[in-house]
Amino acid sequence: MKIIFLDMDGVLNCYDTTDRIVFPPWNQTFLGLDNDKVQLLSRLVQETGAKVIISSSWRENFRPEELQKTLNERGFTGEVVGETPKSYEQIGFGLPPKRGDRGDEIQAWLAANPGLESFVVIDDFKTRYLDMGRQVQTSMVTGFTQEHYDQALTILNKAL
């Protein structure tokens, strides 16, 4: 199996995004998604057969099946199969909540799910996987672009 660890902000949206999404339970409106970036992700999934694991902070407000529905409404044809563990659930709450970094959460998911064919991390924040050649780093300025798509495709086609 091939996996895409997907961040949302700075990947499927950027500073120019006009779409807005309401997060329950506060009905607070936040930056939404760009259809063109979702379509590019969909193309990557279709070309590689990869499945998506949500590593984004959006998993704090939406379950994977809700994110699947939200992505599908914007033309996504792939499959969201889960999310990375939330580090504070493993190490407990504090004030502020204690957290590991996103790389720790991805590593925990990988340790619990051995035998992958390949994976890529698509995120606007640097994780340990950038230095390991397994991350495509996007930005809030551009989000996920064709250049990022090409990089992710190369990584996903490279066996572990």
Through-space gap between termini: 11 Å
For the record, the count of structural domains works out to: 1
The average pLDDT value, as a whole number, equals: 90
**Alpha-beta classification:** alpha/beta
The major beta sheet can be summarized as: 5 strands, parallel
Strand order of the largest sheet: 5-4-1-6-7
Low-confidence stretches: 93-97
User: Could you say which overall geometry the principal axes of the C-alpha atoms support?
Assistant: globular
Give an overview of the whole structure.
This protein is of the alpha/beta class. The protein has one domain (2-156): Rossmann fold, CATH 3.40.50. Helix content is 34%, strand content 19%. It is built from six helices and seven strands, in the order βββαβαβααβαβα. It has helices at 35-48, 64-72, 87-91, 102-112, 128-131, 146-156, and strands spanning 2-6, 20-23, 28-31, 51-54, 80-83, 118-123, 135-137. The strands form two sheets. A five-stranded parallel beta sheet has the order 5-4-1-6-7. Strands 2-3 form a two-stranded antiparallel sheet. Strand 4 (51-54), helix 2 and strand 5 form a beta-alpha-beta unit. Helix 1 runs parallel beside helix 6 (146-156). The longest helix has 14 residues, at 35-48. Mean pLDDT is 90; it is low at 93-97.
